[in-house]
Amino acid sequence: MSQEAFESARRRWEAELARSGPRLPRFETISGTDVPALGLPAGDPDGAYLDGLGFPGQFPYTRGIHPSLYRGRLWTMRQFAGFGTAADTNARYRYLLEHGQTGLSVAFDMPTLMGYDSDHPRALGEVGKCGVAVASLEDMETLFEGIPVGEVSTSMTINAPAAIVWAMYIANAEKQGVPAASLRGTIQNDILKEYIAQKEWVFPPEAHMRLVVDTIEWAARHLPLWHPVSISGYHIREAGSTAAQELAYTLYDGFAYVEAALARGLGVDEFAPRLSFFFNAHSDFFEEVAKYRAARRIWARRMKGRYGARDPRSMQLRFHAQTAGCSLTAQQPENNVARVALQALSAVLGGAQSLHTNSMDETLALPTEKAVTIALRTQQVLACETGVANTIDPLGGSWFVERETDRLEAEAEAIFIELDRRGGMVRAIEDGYPQREIGRASYDYARKLQRGEQVMVGVNRYADSPAAGDGIPLLRIEPRVETSQRERLAALRRRRDAAAARRALDRVRDGARGHDNLMGPILEAVRAYATLGEVVDAMREVFGTYREPSVF
Amino acid sequence: MTEARPIRVLVAKPGLDGHDRGARVVASALRDAGMEVIYGGLWLSPEEIVTIAEQEDVDVIGLSSMNNAHMTVFPRTLELLRERGLGDVLLTGGGIMTAEDMEALGRMGVGRLFGPGSDMDAFVEYIRRWCETRARGTEGRGTCPTA
What we know:
By secondary structure, chain A is α/β, with parallel strands linked by helices.
């Protein structure tokens, strides 16, 4: 019986594979022999294969969400970039697109991430320093000048003020003549992991959760190709969590968004197909591969079993991966190229949909153009030279990798039970629970490094380089960036129709007091050139602010 | 001589950056070394940092900066410390900064700064030594902290 099911699933997969259209006319090794699309067991006598792994593109998607994976299309090479003024970053985007990058990814500066205008006192010294400053629709227009937003997909790493920055992107596209419904891209918009790890929020958790659901709902109604939330483990891992904690907290955050959207009255299949994930690609190679595979299986089972999803796309966990910034060293920085290549390989073997490879100089400064190019070339070497993209889930069926996959799934399930017991993620955050657990894990790791039990080459072993960052050139952000950005903003404030901006801001404030979707009023406000900080302030008057419980 | 008290250290994150892994790890290491840690938390302005330092009577301020704002935040904090008569408080810390910037800050009067991959125990030891040296230099003041 189970053998028949296996054969029938295999035929279904073969048919889907044939339909999907291959990326190359033939897949062969460097030596000229054929490479099969998929390695398979001879049969499935007890049904364990179909139950735990399945075929690519089939439930529970352990082996990948597409029947053809990279045989059909390579992953998206998406390098995160942003610095200085919108014009500086616009030039970098054009450079990356000319050099074969296939998607854009915007890094914003700290004031933007925290919802402050570039001329706010708290922005002093931070404008354009670790990302691009975007304080108004005008900055967004400059950022995408000459870039066809109807053709590229754009990922924006923005969280607390995500709804506002997204509104600016939509309004800019409208001005370019591109309808919102055709826009493709992602806003990170994952506020829970901000409280857990990255610590960039503005309002209390409940208010932010409402805004997240507003964007999910708006995307479902008006931007069907957009990913309104990128549920992120990356920052959780960077804050020092273990792989199992990254996996568990991230998926549990995902469950929280699903439950909040269901509570709003949306049907699961209306919005779940557009949820996406973002994981860290750290250095422990097989554990990382297993983590991605476990993530897909857990998500699929939960979406189907608990939330009643019927659309397969609601069950398919799509993810972006970025190599681990925290694994890079300032000492002997060229070694980071090797680290990044291996981490990127784990993401590819784990079936990532898109990938950012870090630049070797990121522990010292924002990357130079040369360092970014090497990082992009690393992905291209993986994709075009190594053959790893030619067969699907090549580590599937490895006893060790399957055991690691099962182990991570079991550890995550145990953490879910603990989070349930604590009343869900928002309550756990308010109690400081995940923050404390991550703090403990990162301190344990630091002690292991200190004792030499965990090796970092060039740092606590083979450390022969005299000084950090020796010999590699670094990008410097000129102070003129802050001055010119402030001047631009001042000029905008003088030029715009102040009364219209004020009226639009009043509507945002009123909207925040009510329960209707805030995206409409926010869009009106940014179209009237109300600034990011002004829109945030209008909401802050209603929502208030939040300080985390002190835990270390 | 008044009785020796533990070294008091304010650990804080200046500016808007929330990446607090380093700050929290260092705070734990200082605590384990027997020092009293005042964890100031996130998003502090130089004014707020100096006010906490004054209220808590700290010997040392350790700032963690990952967002490239160190060349604004450290000099301003130093300036305020001097204005308020707290010139004998050590301002140290670390994060993502170039050797060149660290040297420039050192010339202004900031203490040693610790970049990525720094030895955690070396930081603890640096603070202990600095406090011992300061105590010897101010013999009789009776505020010599020991850990």
